[in-house]
Amino acid sequence: MTTITPPAPATAADAARPARRTTRGRRWAWAPYLLIAPAVGILLVALAYPVGWQFLTSFKEFGLAQQFGAEAEFTGIDNYIKIVTTSETWLVVVRSVAFCLVNAFLTVAVGTGLALLMNAVPKAVRLILQICLLLAWAMPVVAVMTVWNWLFDWNHGTVNWLAIQLGAEQYWHHNWLESPLSFYAVATVIIVWMSVPFVAFSVYAGLTQVSGEVLEAAQLDGANWWQRFTRVIMPLVRPVLMIVLLLQIIWDLRVFTQIRMLQDRGSFPNQTDLLGTYIYREGVGANQFGMAAAMSVFVLIITVIAAWPYVRSLIKQEAI
Amino acid sequence: MAGWIRRAGRIAASAGALAVALIWVFPVYWMINSAFLPNTKLTASAPTFLPFGGSLTNFKLVLSKGDFGAALKMSLVITLITVFFTLLFAFLAALAISRYKFRGRKSFVLAVLFIQMLPAEGLFLAQYSMIRSLNLLNTVIGVSIIYVAAVVPFTVWMLRGFVAGIPADLEEAAMVDGLSRTGAFFRITFPLLAPGLVASGVYAFLQAWNEFTVALVLLQGDTKTLPLWLRGFIQQSSQHEIDWGQVMAASTLVAVPVIVFFVLVQGRMTSGLVAGAVKG
Fold first, then answer.
1. Contacts of residue A251 in chain B, CB cutoff 8 Å?
2. Closest chain A residue to B200, measured at CA
């Protein structure tokens, strides 16, 4: 979900009364249930049922034999124990969490920097910067991946050309995707590039809420640039920053397209898999549903834990 | 003196901002630029930074492959189905939670907010298994069911904001003036909701149009959506030398309509939200 509008500061609409009109008379008592029925129905079919199935399957031995009709036996938390004790799966988990945190913090740091920059430059320059960020934000992820694959191409890629121009001759025909560390560095560059615009626009929206008068008062009282930033601006934009960081953590845990399409260009999947691509390879590819289901449940649980503060803040803001 | 330092600081900030802008727009520019250049220029030792002497050859070659039309049709059908049912379901639900008080309302809103955060990557295995057991793999319906469920939650949340922004008093006044409840809704509330519906529709459109993961899992045969078709270029080409000109032409074909749409509507989405706020 890349096009979610920035979490706007609480507006007057949020203060609008929720459901002031109570169900008028008995005649309408069933109406709200009828109205939510289609949405609930599709969510039950396409989400609740699969999640339930996944939860059950994660406690079963469910491999190739079971795909062909053998009885799937309950094996308790065997699959979960296997995740922790098998070095391959455990590495995937650790790598994914580390990758997610690095990317999320980098994105928020760079995005905040750009928001401050937007705040500091004249209107015309700001507009140019915003348009460029918007163009990058609008790119479909698959197109993003083809372009960056082209930029990082070992043979004719622009990145290698630039490195050589800057004097690093060893980058002639350098394959960036060969070693896992370099693979992840490329993935990080791409993901930060595509995620920063959302953060920059959201934080900038938060910054515009900081009144000039307050800053001026702080300046008159002798606060220098750094003090104004840490004591006045930061406390005011902190709520936005927290929400944006949480969203980035949730989104960066689920990178799939980016990793998958970098792997397409010839790296070794077993060395570069993160959670999403691992589940895909094990589950859909190799039909090891039990293990893959346990991994999926793990992803869902982390997501729900990370999403809780965000959901709570939304509910508080909108006075549900 | 102080003024001079401040001016120098502003100029430095502007220069930095322009440099950053260049970095961010470069890949987008590079895609379009490369799409027009012949392969001889793309594989030359120095890159060509301007598409002078370029041509539409890459686009012609890509379109002549024939599977573009099929993928475009597939993407269009799935997207239209998703947008239609998402808007219908989400609109009804948004109406319920912003206009009625009922038991279970709060749990429904909570569920919507949480589901909205669930990643496809944690679900696709189970959805694959379900769609397979329904014999709907490689079908429009199979993919659309999953897409609608994925997009409905956020759309409910978004539309709720718009519906709440329209005062119920307006409707009540119309009812006092003799309109029926349904009549008041369709004559008064519905027209005011149009911007909200457009914004939500565009959101659903972009989600379905760009989606890759679920499509990859559920469409394994020759039925492809545009993102899968585009990925195919990199995959097929990886066996031999990649024709980057064609890959970039294909990417441009997929991306440019989305970019135009996104840039046009992004402003309206936010201004729509603000307008709702002012009216509320």
1. 119
2. A4
Half-sphere exposure of A36 (CA within 13 A, CB side): 27
Rounded Cα distance, A143 and A193, in Å: 13
CB A38 within 8 A of CB B92: yes
Residues of chain B with pLDDT under 50: 270-280
The closest alpha carbon to A36, from B150, B100, B120, B191, belongs to B100
With a cut of 0.95, is the ipTM above it? Answer: no
From B46, B153, B158, residue closest to A161, measured CB to CB: B46
Mean pLDDT of chain B: 86
CATH code of the region A56-318: 1.10.3720.10
User: At B64, which CATH number?
Assistant: 1.10.3720.10
Identify all chain A residues contacting B110, using CB atoms and an 8 Å cutoff: 311, 315
The domains of chain A are located at: 56-318
- A303 → closest Cβ in B117, B217, B252: B117
Q: Answer whether A243 touches B (CB < 8 Å).
A: no
CA of residue A275 relative to chain centroid, distance:
13
- C-alpha distance from A178 to closest chain B C-alpha (Å): 15
